[in-house]
Amino acid sequence: MTLREWLEKGEAHLRMGPHPDRARRDAELLLLYVVRRERAALLARWNEKLDEQEAARYVDLIERRRAGEPIQYILGETEFYGLPFRVTRDVLIPRPETEHLVEKVIALAAQFARPRIVDVGTGSGAIAIALAHTLTSAEITAIDLSAPALAIAQENAARNGVDARVRFLRGNLLEPIAAAADPVFPEIETGFDFVVSNPPYVPRTDRENLSVEVRDYEPALALFAGDDGMEVYRRLIPAAFAALNSGGFIALEIGFGQMEAVAALLEASGYDNIDFTPDLQGIPRVACAQRPSVLGVSGSRRIRR
Q1: Average pLDDT over all residues of the chain
Q2: Taking Cα atoms as reference points, which of 223, 225, 227 lies closest to residue 211?
Q3: Residue of higher predicted confidence among 37 and 122
């Protein structure tokens, strides 16, 4: 069979899968992956044939995709903020919506000469690495509970040339940061200008409503946060307040319908200037707030939506 015939066969097979609308694109991506060619080269060689080994591999990849495995995991990589990232089933696949979080931090970081940033739950390292790539003067710490995820993040940092400027630590939320004398959270190092996170925020009760790609393939540790999706926010928001410098910011990705609950947690923890940034669909996606510049003096508590 020629490359054209294999592509048509792959497309037909994927039309029986969970995403028939992406069948042609996915079949082509997988064929390009097998033959290791750019699309232009593939189009110029439609009448070439796959050898036996290539054909068997293509059939296997098509079947994996038809079963619902994300194309990013099959290919082993994806793009985020214009940068290449290796991804495996040990890490969440970076989403375009998370770029809004990166953009928010970059905009706010202009007011700091050498911003100190900690990325909590770094996963593939997408947020920390995108920030390090753009904010060349920043000091960045990236934390994750998963050792396999940290290994992927470190590999991605090296791939994107920022491994010398990102410190990777293993642990739960902010716990691995060196101890400092904070009376409420004594285990947390103070002195950060930003605490940034795309934490787990999917309610466990929503599991069956998720797409097969997410539900059956992406790591549950990076997805679910209790029955209401708020479990991590309840711990991270007050802990981050203790870790921030006066005038420092917390920036969080949030899920659909969580804006009011997150705003209440931020207010209760003492943050000012609570702000929400929508994604391209108009859904509040990024929550941002500031630790007051003068301790003990309340600043503006307005909430901007």
Answers
A1: 90
A2: 223
A3: 122
Instruction: Tell me the three-class secondary structure of 96-115, residue by residue.
Output: HHHHHHHHHHHHHHCCCCCC
Give the residue from 118, 150, 117, 144 showing the smallest Cα distance to 200: 144
Minimal CA–CA distance to 122: which of 107, 132, 112? 132
| Residue 185 confidence (pLDDT) | 45
What are the Cα distances from residue 48, in Å, to 6, 27, 99, 170?
Answer: 10, 17, 40, 49
Query: Residue type for 131, please?
Result: L
| Residue 93 confidence class, pLDDT cut points 50, 70, 90 | very high
| Number of helices (H), then strands (E), in the chain | 11, 10
Looking at residue 219, what DSSP letter applies? Answer: -
Instruction: Find, among 235, 217, 267, 241, the residue nearest to 90 by Cα.
Output: 217
CB atoms within 10 A of CB 146: 18
* Domain architecture of the chain: domains with CATH: 3-68 (1.10.8.10), 94-304 (3.40.50.150)
**Angle, alpha carbons 217-220-221 (nearest 5°):** 135
Mean pLDDT of 56-76: 95
